[in-house]
Amino acid sequence: MRILLCHNYYQQRGGEDESFEAEAALLESRGHDVRRFTVHNDAVEDLSRPRASLKAFFNREVYRELSQVIVDHQPDVMHSTNIFPLLSPAAYYAARRHDVPIVQSLRNYRHLCPGVYFLRDGQVCESCLQKTIAWPAVVHGCYRDSRAASAVSALTFGLHRALGTWSKCVDYYFTLTEFAREKFIAAGWPADKIAVKPNFVYPDPKPGSGAGRYAVFVGRLSPEKGVGTLLDAWQQLPEPIPLKVIGQGAEEPRLREFAKRHPHVELLDFRPLPEVLDIVGEAAFLVMPSLWYETFGRTIVEAYAKQTPVVASRHGAIAELVDDGVTGMLFEPGNAAELAAKAMELWRHPNLPGIRRAAREAFERRYQADANYQQLVQIYRTAILRHGARRAAPAAAAVASSR
Description:
The protein is of the alpha/beta class and 403 residues long. It has helices at 15-29, 49-57, 60-73, 90-97, 135-140, 147-163, 165-169, 178-186, 227-236, 252-261, 273-282, 298-305, 318-321, 336-347, 352-366, 369-402; strands at residues 2-9, 33-40, 77-80, 102-105, 119-120, 123-124, 172-175, 194-196, 215-218, 243-246, 265-268, 285-288, 310-313, 328-331.
C-alpha cells in the first residue's frame, strides 16, 4: 500500500510527534511505501498574526506542495496526525482534489475545544462541546490566554464545521480511547465514522528492573499536566520518596525552586527517548497527575512496556488505561492528599513485583506493535472502501433517476 502521512510538528516535542514517527516506522517495517509530508510550528514565529491566521484556515502553499506530492506518489490513502495550524484543512482539499481517501487521527480535543484541554481555571470545562462556534472559549481567552488567538481557533474550526470540511472531506477518523470517541459523538460527530485505535510502543524497549527506588514523572511541565498537584503531594508524604522529573515547560522555574528546597526531587535535563525509557524502567512507579482528560497517555503505555506501574488521575482516557490496584493506583484529579497516599501505598506495597508483572502483561496484551498494525491497516481499508462508496453514490443516483 502507498501511504501518505501528514503531520504538523509542535514546537515542544510531544506524544503526537512520537506517535506520528512510530506509525511511519511501523508501516515501513511491514513493507509499505510511506511518504511523509511535514511542517513545523517553528515557522509560525516568522509570520505576522494575520498571515498565521489565514494559514490556519487554509494554507495555499501546503495545498500546492501537497498536491504535487500526491501527483508524484499516487498514494492509496492519506493519513493526517495533526493539521493545526500550518498544514490546515488545505491538506484535505488537496487530497480530495486528487481523489485520495483521507484518515484523520483525533489525538487531541482541538476540534471541540479551542483551549484543547477541556480545562479552565484548573477545572474540567465542556462549555464549547456542542457549539458550532466555540464562543465561550473566546470570552475566556482559553487558547494561549488570548481572546484574539482563541477567536482564530474557534472561527477556523467552527467555519470548517459549517462548510462540512470535517464531515465531507475526511472518510474515517480514529481516537485513542473509547472515552475520547464518546466526546466527539456527544459533540455531534457520526459514530460510524470514528474507530478506536490506541497508541503502541515500537520497538519493544523490554522490561526494566524497577531497582532504582524512585518515582518518575515524564511530560510537559504545564498546569494541565498536574505539576502543582504533584508538588503539593510530595510535600505531604509521610516519608520522602525520591522523584525524578523529566520534561520542559512553563512550570520549570517553579519546579527548580521546589527541588532546591527538597533534595529528594530532581529535575533532569532533556533526554532522548531511549534514555527516558531506561529511567522509567528502573523507577518504582510513574506518576501521571493530569488535570485534563487526556486523549490517551502515551507515557503510561511506555511505562507498562518497561514493566513499571502507574499512579494516575481517575478521569478521562487515563481511567481506561490504569486498572486500579492491578497495574497501578488511581486518585481523584487535583487531590494532592490522595495522590500522596496512593504513592506511599504503592511505594510500600508488599506485592509490587506482582503489580509490575501485571503492567507488563497489559502492554503485551493491548499495546504491542503487531496488533496495532492490523488495526491501523484495517482503518485504512475502511477509509478506502468508504471513499469508493461515496464516490459511486452520485453516479448510482443519476442512473436511478434516469430510469
